[in-house]
Structure formats: structure tokens, C-alpha cells
Design goal:
Blueprint (H helix, E strand, L loop, with lengths): L17 H31 L4 H5 L9 H12 L2 H11 L6
Helix pairs in contact: 1-3
């Protein structure tokens, strides 16, 4: 039978996996924050330098932002909540009223 409580120790005495979980959590936090600016930059670049795919992605030309730029802008908005949470946490409880 396999022991459920068996944990191997690293040379520094910490259980293996303890630092890994913290590193993964930090990486996930930074990746969540990286999405919004990345999509915003791609929207800006797509708007300034339209490519051949814009003609396939746009249904009409009535809107000022169409095609890939609109899609990247929308993705930027969808990935905005982690930034709003970070701003709210930094402002403190008094600013939330």
C-alpha cells in the first residue's frame, strides 16, 4: 500500500513541492496581468497596420474599429478584471466605499 503522507525533503529541509506551488501561483498571477496590455498593444498595432486578415474579419466598415483590432480590444477588456482587482486592493478598504 502506498503511504499518503510520504513527502520527500530537499537538501534545505523544506518539503519538495512547497516552493514549486508558490512559484506556480506567482507565475499565474503575472500571466493574468500580462494579458490585458498584450491584447491592447496588439489592438493598437492591428489598427495602425491593417493586414489582409482584416478584410475577412470585418463585417462592415461603419465602425471606426473593425476586424482584428476590434477583437484584440474586446479581449483586452475581457482580461481587465485582474487589473481592477489589483487596483482595488492597493487603494485599501477606505477607498471601496
Amino acid at each position: 500500500m502506498i503511504g499518503m503522507g510520504a513527502v520527500s525533503a530537499r537538501p534545505d529541509g523544506r518539503p519538495e513541492g512547497e516552493g514549486t506551488a508558490a512559484a506556480v501561483a506567482t507565475l499565474v498571477k503575472w500571466l493574468r496581468l500580462a494579458a490585458t496590455p498584450a491584447f491592447a498593444i496588439m489592438a493598437l498595432l492591428s489598427g495602425l497596420m491593417p493586414g489582409p486578415m482584416d478584410y475577412l474579419c470585418s463585417a462592415g466598415t461603419a465602425a471606426p474599429v473593425t476586424g482584428m483590432a476590434a477583437m484584440y480590444l474586446l479581449m483586452s477588456v475581457f482580461h481587465l478584471p485582474p487589473w481592477l482587482t489589483l487596483i482595488a486592493l492597493r487603494r485599501g478598504p477606505a477607498a471601496r466605499l
